[in-house]
Design brief:
alpha+beta, Elongation Factor Tu (Ef-tu), domain 3, seven-stranded mixed β-sheet, six-stranded antiparallel barrel, 7 helices, BSH_YknX-like, Beta-barrel_YknX
């Protein structure tokens, strides 16, 4: 056994010595150069996202104060406590009217005013709905198709829809404006119903009026000393608020997707969308960085979350699906970015590439490589462009005894492989 190992060691030494002398005395470069590749990986398909990490805090989506005018009468009692859930039409408090005729006149004026505001909203909605956006033959045409629309409403609509805007963008602005106006109309209708209810109460009792809610939410504050506001109602829907620094503000746009993680709730994750980013900073100071408030609306809710909870926010600033990608460590930067491509013909090629997005050590390959290819990684000082490459033998699956057993062609192939220049 010792003699056998001794002969194997001698054979390896002679092999290395022969190769050394062949290369050393090869002044005419007759010996073919090879590249030795010890580590390699390959390109693959991947979804890549670039993101910005900031901090945020949960807040109520909407806060509505409820007031009581002491000149209207004498306060009697509350019907709700802090923490109570209230819906539109639920009783909040009552008061005793001091001057019947004055209160009746005030409620009638308020009713008339609300009805006029609702009519104005209806006119504006009609103008919006009849505002046409035509992109036929790549010519943007904007206008009204209803000859009975109010001229003032037409001017107002044309004021925020630019004739030079992209039609798809203009259509989106139109849809958002319709949704906002419909929401405003619903609120006005709720207030009108409350006022008319108070008028009915005044007519039937002549003395006591119960104020009802025009809002769905939770009672978050109640003024025991009857200071204004008497009650504060907060929406049950939550949003995430925070601030962006100057550099971050340049990277973020409205409607970008966001991932919200609450560490204190076992890393609970929610999805959201950047709803609003202020165009102006909260404070302007020459000695400090400006900060821009933002709001993220949630696409889902969780009953565990409460207003005031803090969260980690990951804003998706750019993304690509199914991109050709590679690990960053196999890419080489000198004057230009390139990768060592291992071809199916056994040749190592230096391929200039261009990259796109990057995430956690994975880089998008935008040009220079196509399809699934192998890329050499280490040792780079052994790589030569256009040369055959060799890789190490996997000794775990190699049995020395099997190499010298079997047919003569097998032995000849092994010897040719060892001594082939």
């Amino acid at each position: 056994m010792k003699n056998k190992n001794r002969w194997i060691g001698l054979g390896v030494f002679l092999f290395l010595a022969c190769n050394f002398f062949l290369i050393y005395f090869d002044s005419d470069h007759n010996v073919e150069q090879k590249s030795y590749v010890n580590e390699w990986s390959g390109t693959f398909s991947s979804d890549i996202e670039e993101s910005l990490s900031v901090r945020g805090v949960f807040s109520t989506e909407e806060v509505t104060p409820v007031y009581f005018d002491e000149q209207s009468g004498s306060f009697q009692e509350f019907f709700v406590d802090v923490g109570d859930q209230v819906n539109n039409g639920d009783e909040l408090y009552s008061y005793e009217v001091l001057n019947y005729q004055s209160q009746e006149a005030e409620l009638e004026r308020e009713s008339t005013k609300l009805q006029e505001e609702i009519d104005a909203i209806d006119t504006y909605l009609l103008a919006l709905e009849n505002y046409t956006i035509d992109d036929s033959q790549n010519n943007n045409t904007f206008g009204f198709n209803n000859p009975f629309s109010n001229d003032d409403s037409q001017d107002e609509v044309e004021g925020f829809i630019d004739n030079n805007q992209d039609p798809a963008e203009a259509e989106l602005i139109k849809e958002e404006a319709i949704a906002d106006k419909e929401k405003e109309r619903t609120q006005k209708e709720a207030k009108l119903a409350m006022v008319e209810d108070q008028l009915d109460q005044l007519t039937s009792t002549g003395q006591t009026i119960t104020v009802t809610s025009t809002f769905d939410g939770v009672v978050t504050d109640r003024s025991e000393d009857l200071n204004s506001p008497l009650l504060t109602l907060s929406s049950s829907e939550l949003l995430v608020e925070g601030k962006l620094r100057e550099k971050e503000r340049k990277m973020v746009e409205e409607d970008m997707k966001a991932e919200i993680t609450i560490q204190d709730l076992d890393d609970l994750e929610l999805q959201g969308s950047m709803e609003e980013i202020d165009s102006f900073p909260e404070d302007v100071n020459v000695h400090s960085s400006s900060q821009y408030p933002y709001e993220i609306t949630l696409t889902e809710n969780d009953e565990q979350i409460r207003a005031g909870y803090h969260a980690d926010v990951n804003i998706i600033t750019d993304e690509v699906s199914g991109a050709l990608a590679a690990f960053e460590k196999v890419l080489v930067t000198e004057k230009n970015l390139f990768a060592w491509k291992m071809t199916d013909q056994g040749i190592l090629e230096k391929s200039l590439i261009e990259t796109g997005l990057e995430e956690a050590g994975i880089v998008e390959i935008s040009s220079g490589l196509e399809g699934q290819v192998k890329l050499a990684s280490l040792p780079r000082d052994q790589f030569r462009d256009g040369t055959p490459f060799i890789t190490p033998i996997d000794l775990r699956n190699l049995k020395i005894d099997d190499l010298f057993q079997g047919s003569l062609p097998m032995k000849e192939t092994i010897l040719l492989g060892l001594f082939n220049r």
